[in-house]
Amino acid sequence: MAARPMPYLDELNSAQREAVEALDGPVLMLAGAGTGKTKALTARIVHLLNTGRARPNEILSVTFTNKAAKEMKIRVGKMLGEAVEGMPWLGTFHAICVKLLRRHAELVDLKSNFTILDTDDQIRLLKQLIAANGIDEKRWPARQLAGIIDHWKNRAWTPENVPSAEASAYNNRGTELYDQYQRRLLELNATDFGDLLLHVVTIFQKNPDVLQQYQRWFKYILVDEYQDTNVAQYLWLRLLAGGHKNICCVGDDDQSIYGWRGAEVGNILRFEKDFPGAKVVRLEQNYRSTEHILAAAGGVIRGNEGRLGKELWTEAEGGEKVRLIGHWDGEEEARWIGEEIEAMQRGTRGMRPISLDDMAILVRASHQMRAFEDRFLTIGLPYRVIGGPRFYERLEIRDAMAYFRLVVSPTDDLAFERIVNTPKRGLGDKAQQKIQVCARQNGVPLVEGARILLAEGGITGKGAGQLRALVDNLERWGRMTRVPVINVNDDAVLEDDSTAQAIEYARPEVSHIELAEMVLEESGYIEMWQNDKTPEAPGRLENLKELVKALENFDNLQGFLEHVSLIMDNETDDHGAKVSIMTLHAAKGLEFPAVFLPGWEDGLFPSQRSMDESGLKGLEEERRLAYVGITRAEEICTISFASNRRVFGQWQSQLPSRFVDELPEEHIDVLTPPGLYGGGYGAAAPVGEVRSSIDQRVSEANVYNSPGWKRMQARASQRPVSQPRETRNQVIDAQAISAYTIGDRVFHQKFGYGEVTGIEGDKLDIDFEKAGTKKVVAKFVMASTD
Ligand code: ATP
Ligand code: MG
């Protein structure tokens, strides 16, 4: 066969080429971020195909996400210069295992059409088992058991071989229930996610002939992100590669970020032991990021002990330093980032315009996304959330919103259906059906139907009392949203005679924020998650706090609900460029010209949990996450933190993350926050001075009182330093200093752009371009830089 052209090899450096061309035997590519591991792995597939070593369906290639699999297929096609005829075995561990399991289901007593349970089904099943065993589910929640079982499955432990050291799990009954659960799944012809891998490993272990068949079939095995494989995945790979040992794994010990989900960075470190004679290729040239970005990432990761310690270099010298900026609070951070993104999109400071598709915001915890989603919606900045539901689509947020909807509009039957038995109120399907029938017969909404049913004694027992409490609560909360009288005596509003505007100033007895907290507390919804012992529960509680925080930007629940329905509507539009918002975990393997890393505060990043833990394990994993975050950036990397965050109605002052202190000074530009004098770019202050101000910040808890900070502000503005800026979200009392000065250009959602012509406490006189002169409360306007 005539040699085929191999242009894809010319795109590689010599180390990459070596890894690509060493087709036979085990190969490990162990190298830092952006050194072209994934690129080399892709080239290796192309080379295998091009040299005729394997056909597309004889290559087993594992990626970490479905998205990565899709991208790899596209890249293979491009490099090969022709469409690839299906690569059925290129995918995630799960995707590949589903296929294998369908083929051999009978070997583990399943039928090939088995169903895969989602988490909800899984929990329901566990609850049934728990009840059947006479265990009090309140004390020993099903979710806790689900977590334990998942953990065991990640370690490839079937019920028979869970080690005795684990015997105390779930009140000493974990193993027994695990066994029952597995049996029940078989009866239902079902699996959960963890089973997919575990069953296939069992099949391979118990059926050498089947294993051999696949060992021969998969002529070559390739694995990306090897540092994040768990024990079950590792065993699976070892079994499959056991024959020819043509396995090529690539990874980076510094990017191991799934320890909390059972990943074992040790897998990568013992590759050479498992596969003696393995070729180990190290790559040191980074092709992704500028010098400053690499150096900043390197500075942070140096703080970890027991690393393999790789040095990276890049030809991309110079470029922008990593930018660091502190903000007054989280809302201001979101606002500033929104403005920055728009500026970059236009092309700022002599830089080329950057498309929204090329920018990403990477957060530590998904609840941080809310502030950005809200802000971007307000300014009409298109965004997408990657790797998870958008904030307002999350289960707990939808539940909470259903409560709010019902409070505002008691006729919202869908909302009622959603929450009537969430948290559990002892109202099963039968009781719910009765409510439906009663409502229909009387031609009234479900809440009303429930009330009638209760009055008629149509519902009895435990459920009746709880239903009554719910119905009564809904009515009471509903009364609180309605403003008793419109306060037209307030002089401040007389200049605007529209009723809508007047209502803005009339206050119900309880603020909508207090009301929202009350609803979530009194309904038992918060408690439900507090009692929940699964790993996701703390995150859900955080999201609920974040939801309450979101309410501050609105003057009533109604306005908020409208805003959210707009967000949900927005979602259907999938065209055009968009900023990506995702967690650091979801960003693994990706790259963007411009990256924003907000919320670098102790307790948020590193997470509180990792800081509370004894030992450094958790903290080191957080540091690797920081490394992953910074190394996603190609040209511009912006790290930010806020001094204040509001947690359930309480302002909390925050300290900058310890990782901020680990950023090497010479690669950092500290930007001056918009702070006192409105938005826009601040001049970068000398790093030394700002560093000292940051250090001071750590000791003083609130940087805005620190002399260094005030000096910096004064320099930036060349105006005398006055009191710190009041954010529009803070409660403004009589003495409060307005955030605005006369002559400021502002924006009001209803009246548009205008200029401040007078200030009186928290009220501003504004000359609006279109709407004329009006007096409005300062918190309803925002500073405009247009
Ligand atoms: P991560 O650890 O973040 O997953 P990685 O090591 O997999 O990174 P890649 O994503 O493969 O790195 O490559 C990073 C960037 O460098 C990509 O844009 C890629 O196209 C480019 N690149 C890789 N190798 C080369 C090369 N030899 N010449 C030019 N560009 C390269
Ligand atoms: Mg990669």
TrEMBL record:
* One Pfam entry name: UvrD-helicase
- Family annotation (Gene3D superfamilies): 1.10.10.160, P-loop containing nucleotide triphosphate hydrolases, PCRA, domain 4
Q: Which GO terms describe its biological process?
A: recombinational repair
Catalytic activity entry: ATP + H2O = ADP + phosphate + H(+); Couples ATP hydrolysis with the unwinding of duplex DNA by translocating in the 3'-5' direction
Per the record, the domain of life is Bacteria
The entry sums up its family as follows: Belongs to the helicase family. UvrD subfamily.
Show where the UvrD-like helicase C-terminal domain sits. Answer: 291-589
Residues folding into a coiled coil are none
Q: Can you give the residue ranges of the UvrD-like helicase ATP-binding domain?
A: 10-290
| Organism the protein comes from | Pseudooceanicola nitratireducens
Return one GO MF term. Answer: 3'-5' DNA helicase activity
Q: Which UniProt keywords apply?
A: ATP-binding, DNA-binding, Helicase, Hydrolase, Isomerase, Nucleotide-binding
Role this protein plays: Has both ATPase and helicase activities. Unwinds DNA duplexes with 3' to 5' polarity with respect to the bound strand and initiates unwinding most effectively when a single-stranded region is present. Involved in the post-incision events of nucleotide excision repair and methyl-directed mismatch repair.
Entry's CDD domains? DEXQc_UvrD, SF1_C_UvrD
Which sites bind ATP? 31-38
**GO cellular component annotations of the record:** cytosol; DNA helicase complex
**Broad enzyme group:** isomerase
EC nos: 5.6.2.4
Q: Which protein is depicted?
A: DNA 3'-5' helicase
